[in-house]
Amino acid sequence: MNPRFKPGDAVTVRRAYPPGHLRTPHYIRGHHGIVERVCGSFANPEELAFGRNGLPALPLYRVRFTQRQVWPDYAGADGDTVDIEIYEHWLERV
Amino acid sequence: MHEDHPHDHAPDHDGPLSDYQLMEIAVRELLLEKRILTADEIRRAVEAMDARSPALGARVVARAWTDPAFKSRLLANGTAACEELGIEMAATKLVVVESTPEVHNLVVCTLCSCYPRMLLGLPPDWYKSRAYRARAVREPRAVLREFGTELPDGVTVRVHDSTADMRYLVLPLRPAGTEGWSEERLAGLVTRDSMVGVSVPAAA
User: Fold this and answer.
1) Does B11 fall in a domain?
2) What is the CATH number of the domain that holds B80?
3) B13 within some domain
4) Does B11 score more than 90 pLDDT?
5) Nearest CA distance, B108 vs chain A (angstrom)
6) Contact between residue B176 and residue B101 where contact means Cβ atoms under 8 Å apart
7) Which domain-ending residue is among B27, B50, B73?
8) Integer CA distances (angstroms), A76 to B50, B76, B77, B98, B113, in order
């Protein structure tokens, strides 16, 4: 699959809570971030966890979030960030 | 303590096996019984795992500190650059994040315990603890202080949550006062914790 997003794109993490084996941490769902890099394409872990082949491989991104936005009472500096690896089907364009 | 047996024994901790331990034994015995693996192959794999230590990562860091061209290759493609040094990377996709006077990097896996084992060996227990995994993203500066790491004002903290297929190594800032040091001597300063980002190397 060709990646839908490129570095610098503004994205939102889907606010969804399906059952199963998920690699998108709860704490980041619903938040906005900026694509830091495209990591390549990887078999879908949500499928692999159930013994399926996880194909087609999905683009995986590193997305950078501002800590202040993720945790409203964040005690660090304004510029602090958290980078998280997120598969394409969890991301929407802002 | 008995008179003719005058030393203490450490208590055994051989409690009942956990579900995961039982599962591991069951799977291992099946793999042997079905001749998919031999006991010797399993032993060799465990031995190879145990042989990996942070000394591998330290070599990579010291090379990057002394060879700017290597450093650029390392930041562009961590896996390929480590393979250049003869380090076996298997399927590991390595991302190297560089700390600078302005940016400090910290690595965590909030979901489990993903760790660059090919370069650092097995993760320490604290890295796998729920406390570290939850707090490293929520209050990284407090966690750093508990590890004795005080960052100067104005330094940005960048946390990397290792949630999927990448593995992370921090390239720490080369300590002041190490000008002209050999690669080997520099490698001696690079600790496991500094490559996870909970501490910074210092020239003692």
Assistant:
1) no
2) 3.90.330.10
3) no
4) no
5) 10
6) no
7) B50
8) 37, 29, 30, 20, 24
DSSP string, B129-172: SHHHHHHHHH-HHHHHHHTT-PPPTTPEEEEEE--SSEEEEEEP
Q: Are strands A91-93 and A81-87 parallel, antiparallel or unpaired?
A: unpaired
Domain boundaries, chain A: 10-93
Domain extent at residue B188: 52-196
- The CATH fold assigned to A10-93 is SH3 type barrels. (2.30.30)
User: At residue B172, what is the residue type?
Assistant: P
Domain count, chain B: 2
How close B14 comes to chain A (CA, Å)?
31
A82 → closest Cβ in B95, B111, B159:
B159
pLDDT digits (tens, 9 = 90+) for B18-54: 999 999 999 999 999 999 999 999 999 999 999 999 9
For residue B72, the 8-state DSSP code is H
Q: How confident is chain A (94 residues) per 10-residue block, as mean pLDDT?
A: 95 96 96 98 95 96 98 95 98 96
ipTM rounded to 2 decimals = 0.97
Rounded-to-10 torsion of CA B20, B22, B26, B32? 90
Counted across chains A and B, CB pairs separated by less than 8 A come out at: 71
Per the CB < 8 A criterion, the answer to whether A5 and A91 are in contact is yes
Cβ(B167)–Cβ(B116) under 8 Å?
yes
Contact by Cβ (8 Å): B76, B69: no
